[in-house]
Amino acid sequence: MARPSHDYTRLEPMVRRLHADGHGVQRIARQAGISVGSAHGLIGRLGLTRPVVATSARRRPVRRPMPVGMGLVLGGVNA
After folding, report:
1. What's the pLDDT at 54?
2. CA angle, 16 as apex, 27 and 52 as ends, to 5°?
3. At what angle do helices 36-46 and 8-20 cross, to 10 degrees?
4. Full-model pTM
5. Cα dist from 64 to 57, 68, 71, 79, whole Å
6. Whether the Cβ atoms of residue 15 and residue 43 lie closer than 8 Å to each other
7. Which of its termini does the chain have fewer beta carbons within 10 Å around, N or C?
8. Higher pLDDT among residues 28 and 6, named by residue
9. Which is nearest to 26 in space by CA: 14, 17, 16, 37?
10. When comparing pLDDT for 31 and 60, which is higher?
């Protein structure tokens, strides 16, 4: 069975309003009666995607202590 095409002219005002109110994609999809993927695509097609902010701060790697006894294995005592 073929998948019916969506009536985007009917869905656009609803998606714009819900997106402007700050609702997520899952909520928009449920209200509009479409799948989450279709809601994602419609939001992208309407140009409502939020810009990605680039971070300039460089993160330091997190150093975690080794488990107890790991130093003995690495040191060659158990070799």
Report:
1. 74
2. 80
3. 80
4. 0.57
5. 21, 12, 13, 24
6. yes
7. N
8. 28
9. 37
10. 31
Sign of CA dihedral 19, 25, 26, 32: positive
Tokens at 65, concatenated: 């202590």
More confident call, 37 vs 54: 37
Q: Reply yes or no on whether the pLDDT at 29 is more than 70.
A: yes
Cβ neighbors of 16 (< 8 A, separation 6 or more) are 46, 48
- CA 30 vs. chain centroid, Å, equals 17
Provide the residue count of the chain. 79
41, two tokens = 């695509």
The contacts of residue 57 (CB under 8 Å, 6+ apart) are none
**Tokens at 53, concatenated:** 């902010």
Neighbours of 19 (CB within 10 A): 20
Q: In angstroms, rounded to a whole number, what is the distance separating the alpha carbons of residues 46 and 39?
A: 11
Measured distance CA(43)–CA(65) in Å, rounded: 45
